[in-house]
Design a protein that fits this description.
Radius of gyration: 16 Å
Low-confidence stretches: 189-194
Mean pLDDT: 88
Strand order of the largest sheet: 4-1-5-8-6-7
Distance between the termini: 10 Å
Number of strands: 8
Largest sheet: 6 strands, mixed
Helix content: 40-55%
């Protein structure tokens, strides 16, 4: 077995304004998306380190193009990109998880597990599992041909109630997402060994 399954967990957007690739993402209620998703990824990675789970994350200073160029996914890897949603309508609410166009059954199952965990913990509306063609861009750079790929929209940053519900449960959400990813990664390692 030359390759062990690895989880790539990425935080959308670059939080450091001193970096050339600064990209705060959505900003609402005095909060930047980049700060929220980087904090979330840090919490998930903290669990991975505690459990000795093989994982990798992006450099907070890298642009999306740089992050994508460094990805070397194999069929056994998992990629999870984390964002918050935003809307001109301050009442837009809920959680959604995106999968690639022509998603595999594993990608759909992973997305549904994450979606159900977040909505169950927060009480936020489920906006469903969607494929990348349902985004404004129609294609997402992080959706790779190899691996199991998902992109999480944790909640609507532009909705103050969503933000409050997320903040009240963010540690529980991070633990739950970490457990879901760890379980899938362990299943892939077992498959590789048989």
């Amino acid at each position: 077995m030359s390759h062990k399954s690895r989880i790539y967990i990425l935080a959308g957007h670059v939080p450091d304004a001193s970096k050339g690739n600064y990209d705060p993402g959505a900003i609402a209620h005095g909060v930047r998306e980049a700060d929220l998703v980087n904090e979330f990824v840090d919490m998930v990675c903290g669990h991975f380190r505690e459990w000795a789970v093989r994982h990798a994350t992006d450099n907070d200073a890298d642009s999306l193009a740089q992050v994508v160029s460094k990805l070397e996914l194999t069929a056994d890897d998992i990629l999870c990109d984390v964002h918050t949603n935003a809307s001109a309508n301050p009442l837009a609410t809920g959680v959604e998880v995106f999968v690639p166009y022509r998603a595999t059954q594993k990608e759909i199952q992973l997305a549904k597990a994450i979606l159900d965990a977040i909505t169950g913990l927060t009480g936020l509306k489920s906006r469903g599992v969607k494929d990348e063609t349902q985004t404004a861009r129609k294609r997402l750079a992080v959706m790779r041909e190899n691996g199991t790929n998902v992109l999480i929209e944790l909640f609507f940053l532009t909705n103050l109630s969503d933000l409050s519900k997320y903040n009240a449960k963010k540690k529980d959400i991070a633990l739950s997402v970490a457990n879901i990813l760890k379980k899938l990664s362990a299943q892939r390692i077992l498959h590789l060994m048989t």
